[in-house]
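Write out this protein's structure.
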Amino acid sequence: MFSRIRMYLGVAVYIGVSLGILPVHLSAQTLQASSFGAKCDGSSDDTAALNAAIQAASAQSAVLTIGSGTCLQKQVLVGAPVTIRIVNGAVLKLADAANTKQFLIRASNVTLSGDGTGILDGNSSHQSQPSDQIMVDPGVSNVTIEHIRFQNTKGSHIRSKGVSGPVNTHIIIRDDTFQNAAASAVYLNWETTDSTIDNNKFLGGHGNAISVYNHSPHSQIDNNQISDYDRMAIEVWNGGQGAQVENNNIKLTCAGVRSWGISMDRSPDSLVKNNQINCAGNNGFNGIEIVGSDNSQVADNTISGFGTGMSIDRSSNVKVTGNTISSTGAGIIVGSSVAGQHIRANWIEGNKIVLRGAGKGVGVRLMCNAANADCSGNTIVDNDITGGGGSGAYSGVSTARYAGALDKTVIALNRFGGIAKPVAPEAGTKPKLLGNHGAPSANMTPTANSASGIQSDAGDDDNDDRAGRLALTNGQASYQFKSSYTKPPECIAVSSATRKRLTEKTTTTNLTITGPSGDSALYVCHAE
């Protein structure tokens, strides 16, 4: 009877593990590090015992548990698939003057996990050379590091590779806590693809909290809490195509340093969404930076305390929508000072920007201050831009250009309050202005309805489909695009009288708007 019960239990555990209902360590034999001579008394060198225990656990497909005390160690090698658990407050501490890694992972299918109380301590105050706590070697895949507390390292807490070579894939870093690293806390480098960094706590250190570098595409960086790093909270650099950075809570002190929140550099097709980014010192450099990252989306982020809330530099066809920005300088800067660059067809829509500085702040600045740069076809539409109590002489939207590089710019349907110059185009630039609200000024000529400050159609049309005014005859207006598009443009249409949104439909050739008869519609379209 009992053998039959054991059989049924075994089948149940197998099914549970297969379906992901039960963790793998519940189905496997468990080995204790102490059985291999690990004393973990805080004074003995446990390196040899830990290496022997890891080799045995791997050979037996067992789970190795390190469950109490302080184990002093030098470098431990993980050379075959294995699961290692650090639990019950156990501490793995790098020995004095070891100047080496704590774990070198040279095999795929490795799990290093805990119960949230196990600690890896890099003992940085007693090391003379930079040393990372965990190094994942080239060509390694399917490594999971979760529920571990990392502290006090002379290098990074977790690092993958250091040189170009075989690709790393599927490194998962989840539910860990990091504090006091001398370099980037988590540093995934050189062709580390499809990585996941989520639900971790980064509690302070030097450099970046998270760095994903050098041709490491498709990373997911989600739901992390990040505070008190003195360079960047998150940096995806040089080949991070398709990265998703979402729902992170970033709080930087910015005390005496100029910090970035999130930087996406040469990482096209990326998504930065719903992050909370705050610089308490009000002297942060950039809340979000998009550099050389075409076809990316930046949506629904909240940014405060940075000199520039967001910058879009050397990037085209970036959509910036629904962000809330409180800035001491510029809300959003679109453009470049680098010769020969393309910053085209970016779409800045539905953002709320509050300017609080004492200088000459600007809500959205479109600049193209370099020879042979192309900053054409950008659209700034349906944004709320206000002066929020600072003493600055604020501008709502300003433009600057080099040799007419701002062709086909549209500034439309924006609302301004407490702004000295709602629209301030530099001499020689001719943006298409349509339906902006705000106090009239010399740089924003209103229609006869001057009380509302509604901007009349003006500027450089250039046979441009993207913005205009259409009469609603019998409750409908139709417009045939002058250009040929491969897919229907995305459009916004509002009532000229009430500014309420109207219903619009598009095809690759036509725009149709439905609204009150006798009214007119203001429309703005984005076409790729």
